[in-house]
Amino acid sequence: MDTGFEIATEPRGEASASLPQAKDLSHHFNQTTKNREASTLKELYRYAGVPGMITMAGGIPHPEVFPFETLSATILAHDAFPLDPPRVPKKGKSLIEWLFSPTSLPTTSFTIPKWSPKPVDPKTIQLSTSLQYQAATGPPALPLFLREYVSKVYKPAYSDWDVLVNVGNTDGWSKIINLLAEKGDAILVEEWTYPSAVNSFLPYECKTVPIKMDKEGMLPEHLEKVLSEWNEEERGGKKRPHIMYTIPTGQNPTGATMEAERKKQLYKICSKYDVIICEDEPYYCLYTGEWTPKGSKSDKSILAQRRADAEKKEGSEGNQAFIKNLPPSYLHFDVDGRVIRMDTFSKTSAPGSRLGWITANPQFIERLTRISETSTQAPSGFATALTTVMLQKWGFEGYIRWLRGVKATYNMRKTWMCDAFEDVFHLEFDQNKSLFPDGSKTITCYSKTPKNKWDEKKGLHGPALVTFTPPTAGMFVFLGVHISEHPDYDKLTRKGEDATHVLVQKLWTELADNLVLFAPGWYFDGGGEHAIGGKGYGYFRLSFSIATYEETYKAIRTFSQVLEKFFKTK
Amino acid sequence: MDTGFEIATEPRGEASASLPQAKDLSHHFNQTTKNREASTLKELYRYAGVPGMITMAGGIPHPEVFPFETLSATILAHDAFPLDPPRVPKKGKSLIEWLFSPTSLPTTSFTIPKWSPKPVDPKTIQLSTSLQYQAATGPPALPLFLREYVSKVYKPAYSDWDVLVNVGNTDGWSKIINLLAEKGDAILVEEWTYPSAVNSFLPYECKTVPIKMDKEGMLPEHLEKVLSEWNEEERGGKKRPHIMYTIPTGQNPTGATMEAERKKQLYKICSKYDVIICEDEPYYCLYTGEWTPKGSKSDKSILAQRRADAEKKEGSEGNQAFIKNLPPSYLHFDVDGRVIRMDTFSKTSAPGSRLGWITANPQFIERLTRISETSTQAPSGFATALTTVMLQKWGFEGYIRWLRGVKATYNMRKTWMCDAFEDVFHLEFDQNKSLFPDGSKTITCYSKTPKNKWDEKKGLHGPALVTFTPPTAGMFVFLGVHISEHPDYDKLTRKGEDATHVLVQKLWTELADNLVLFAPGWYFDGGGEHAIGGKGYGYFRLSFSIATYEETYKAIRTFSQVLEKFFKTK
C-alpha cells in the first residue's frame, strides 16, 4: 500500500530543528489540571513491550470475541470534485434521484482486516488493534499523518509542538476549558461568536469578554484597550483574561477571515498580556475567496489573479498554491507556544466521525492527554481506522486535492447564494451603509420594486432592506436587515421595547411560516457594544452549505417577498 | 431487513405502566449542573421538521462531500461461539496461524449505504445521517434497541427511566461526576476498586470513602456504620457522601459478584441516607459461574444444576435461562430512580468502539444530555452505525445468544487459569486461611515440593504460598501471596519498613524479569482497613482474558518457580 507519506522519525519536520522550544506556560493551568497525576503504573508500561512477555496485567478483552472480522469502505476519489465547477448547475439532482441513483463520482475502496500481515508497522491499521483499548493518543498512524499535515500546512514557529486527537472541536474546546479555566474566569471572544463554545464555559461561571470586530475579526486596538484598562474591581473581582477563544477563518457567524498582518498584531498583544490563543478552525479549508458579481469583471490585482489561476491547476503545483493562499495559522507566528489550535474532520470528511485534533505545546498536550484518559480516552477506533486508511489511501497530496475539491464545492454554493441576492434584489456596493467598520465590498440590497409610480418613472428602486459582506470563507452569509426602517420601529422604541429584537423575531417567524429557516443573529451575540453593524440592524445568519441551487433561489425570493410585506406593514 | 426488535411507541415496555415514576432527586446536582441551560433555540427546532422547509439555520456540511459512500462489515454470526467449549483446547492456534488463516467461525455481512430507500424509518441507518451532526442522544435506532434490552434484561422498578449513549464507561462516569460531584465531595467506593474511576474524581479534590467487602462486594453493615457515624468535623469538613461508585459484577480487581439479597440491603441503606448508586457494569454479561476442580463432581444443588443445564440450551429457552441466571441489576430494586447504571460495548463487542450508555431517571438523563452537548456530542457515527446494524442483524434474541457465547469463552479462559493453578500447585480448600471474610470456596495454593526429605517421607507438601477465591464473573483472579512467610518479612518490619509493599514489589519485579506481568494489588487499593485478606498478604490481579492456554500454563508455572525461589531467599 502506497501511503503517500513518510514515517517521520523527527515527527515535526526537518525545518523545526532550528526553531526555539515552547516557553514554560504551565502557570496557566487551573487547580484541577495541577492536581492531575500521571499513572502510577509507569513501571508496568516499561515491561509491557518486552518480547515474550505474558501479559496478565491489563483488563483487556480478547480480539477473538470482537464481532468485526473485516471493515470495508467505498470512498470518493481524492479528485472526485472539480476545482472549477460551473456557476449554474446543469441540472439539479432531485431528492428521488439522490436516493436511488448511486453516485456518479469516481470512487475507490479498501478493506481493513482484523489481523494485518504487518502488525508492527506503525502505519498499519488492523481491527484487532483499532477495536482494542488504545492509548488516548490514538493509533500511531494517525498522529503521524497529522504531524506531517501540521508541519507542511501551518508551519509552526517553534519546534516541540505536538498533536492530540479528540472527538471533535466541541470536545477539544471542552478539554481546553478543563485545562485552563478556573471557575469565574473572564474569556475573550469575538463580539459575535459561536454560542456552543460559550455554553461550554458558562456553567463554570466563566464570563465572555467580547472584542469588537471588522471583516478580519478581532480589532487589535480594542483588545489592547480591554487588556490594558482591565480593572479587577470594576470587573467584579474577575482577573484579567488569560484565555482567548477565536475563529479566525470564516468566523461563525460573521464570515470574517483574518489575514497574516492582523494575526501578528493580535499575537503581539496576547504575548504582552500573557493570553493563551485558542483558535477554533473548522472552516479553515473552506477559504472560498471573493465573490464576483455575475457579468462583472474580477477586480483582482494581477498578482491575486495569478495566485487564483495557480490554484486551479491540478497536481502538486496547484496543491502548493492552495496551501500558500490559505491565511496562515496563528501557529505560524507562535514563538512562545501560546496557541492551541483546534482542527476537525467534521467539515473536511464528516461531522459524524467525531474526530479532530489539537496542536499545542508539549506541556499542554501532556495535560490534555491526562484529561482524555479520564474522559473520552482515544476516539472511536472505527473513526480512527476508517479515517486513517482513507488518508493513507489518498496520501498527503491526495488529501490536499480533496480539500481543494471541498473548498470548490462550498465556493460554488456561496456563489449560488450571492447570485440569488443579485438576481432577486437591486444591489449597490455602498461604502456608506457598511456592515463592517472598514466597509469594503459591502453590499446593500434594495427592493427592485419602487415605492410609487413617481419613483418608478424616475427609474428608482425601493428602500434599502438588507446589507451584507460576501464571506471569503466558511459556510455563512451574516446579514443585517435595516430594521429601523420598519414603520413600527419608533413607536416600539418609544414604548420602551427592544424594537430591533421584537421586529427581528417577527420577521424570523414570518420567514419560517413561509418555509425558510434562518438562524437569528441574537443567538450569536457575544455581548458588549457591536462594531459590526450597529443600532437599527437586525441580524440573520444564512447557511449556504446544504440547500440546492433551486432551494437557494427559492429561499432568497421568499426572503425578498416577506421583507417587502414586512416593511409595508402598518 | 428483519431487525428482530419492535419499535416501541412506549419505549420502556408494557410492564412499566403500573410502576411508580422516579422521585425528584435534582437536589443532588452540583452547582455547574444547575447552571446549565437548555438551548435558547427551541423555537428553531420546532420549525426544523416542517415538511418543505428550506433550512439555512444550521452550520452543517453537505453529505455529498462526505467521502464515505458505503461502509461494509463482515461480522461473526451471533452463535459463532459454542456455549460449552471443551475444557482443554484441541490445538492452540499459533500467532502465525492467527495472522494468515481467515477465521473459521461463521460470519455474516452487511453494507450501509449513504442514502437508504427508507430514510424516515426510525430503524434506518444511512451514512448521510450517521456521518452528519446528530443529537447527543445518537441515532434513534440505537436507544430503541437499548431500551428494549434494559427493559427485558434489567427490568427497572420505576417507569420513566431512559437511556443515553456515551463514548464508554470512562466517559459515562466522568459525566456523572460532572453531574453530581461538588469539589471536595467524599465518594463511596469498594475497599479495592478500579483506579481509573478514582482518577476521574481525584483532580476535583474528591476523596474516596472505602467500604469493606466480602465475596459479594460491599458489606451493608460497614456502609451503614460509615453513613450513620459520619461526622463532618472528623472528616475535615466533608459532607456525608451522596455518591456511591460500585462494580457489582466481576468486581475489579477482586472478582466479587453481588447477588439480589445483598443489593436489596445496600439499596435500602442508600435510600435511607439519600445516596445515588452508580453501578459500573462492564463485566455484567461475563458472569461465568463457579469453577469446579478437574475430576471433581460439581457440588451444585439440584436446582443450581438444573439452571446451569437450562442455560446450555440453544434458542429462546436458553436465552431466558441466561437472563434469569444473571444477578439482577440495582435498577431492578430502584423504586426511587437513584441508580445510574453504566453499560458498555467494550466487553460485549469491542473496546475501541468507544460506545456505551447510561440508564437513569429522566431528570438525570436530561442534564447528562446537556453535558454531552458541550463535550462529546453523540458518539462517533461510525461506531453507532456499525454497532446498531450489527444489533439489528442479530436481533434481540441473537444478541443475547452472542453474549452467551462471549460468556462461555471467558468462562473457558477462567477455567484454564484455575486448572493451571490446580496442576501446578497443591490446592487446599481451606476455610481458615480465607481471603474473603466469609471464606467460602477459598483456595490456598501450597508448593508441591516439600520443605525437606522428612516432610517428603510423611507425604507433606511445602508451605502455603498463595490464596484466592475463583471468581464467578469478570476477567480477573485476585490473589493474596502469603508475604509474611517471607524470611525477610520480620526483619523489614522491625526496621520500620512497609515489609508487604517492599516484598510484593520485589516479587512483582522478579516475575516481570521472568516474562510474566501481573497487576500489583496496591494499585487497586481504595484506602482504609481491608476486610478482604488482611495484614501479611501481598496482592496481585491476574487477568485471564488474553493469554492462550499454553501461555496461561507457562505463566502459572513460572509464578510457582519464582515463588519457590522468593520464599527461600535469605
The average pLDDT score of chain A comes to 90
Strand order of the largest sheet of chain A: 4-12-11-10-9-5-6
Helix coverage percent of chain A: 25-40%
Q: How many alpha or pi helices of chain A? A: 17
Distance between the termini of chain A: 70 Å
Unreliable residue stretches of chain A: 1-10
Structural class of chain A: alpha+beta
Commentary on this structure:
Two copies of one chain form a homodimer. Chain A is of the alpha+beta class and 570 residues long. Chain A has two domains: 15-287 and 303-408, 3-Layer(aba) Sandwich (Aspartate Aminotransferase, domain 2); 425-568, Aspartate Aminotransferase, domain 1. In chain A, 35% of the residues lie in helices and 16% in strands. Chain A has helices spanning 31-35, 42-48, 95-100, 127-130, 141-154, 169-180, 195-201, 220-228, 260-272, 302-311, 315-325, 362-373, 381-424, 453-457, 489-494, 499-513, 549-568, and strands at residues 54-56, 68-76, 107-113, 162-166, 186-190, 207-211, 213-214, 217-218, 243-246, 276-280, 339-344, 356-360, 426-429, 443-446, 464-468, 476-482, 516-520, 537-543. In chain A, the strands form four sheets. Chain A has a seven-stranded mixed sheet with strand order 4-12-11-10-9-5-6, sandwiched between helices. In chain A, helix 5 packs parallel to helix 13, helix 6 packs parallel to helix 7 (195-201) and helix 6 crosses helix 12. Chain A is globular. Chain A starts with 30 loop residues before the first helix and ends with a helix. In chain A, 51% of the residues are buried. Chains A and B meet through helix 1, helix 2, strand 1, strand 2 and helix 3 of A and helix 1, helix 2, strand 1, strand 2 and helix 3 of B. Strand 17 of chain A pairs parallel with strand 1 (54-56) of chain B. Chains A, B: This is Aminotransferase class I/classII large domain-containing protein.
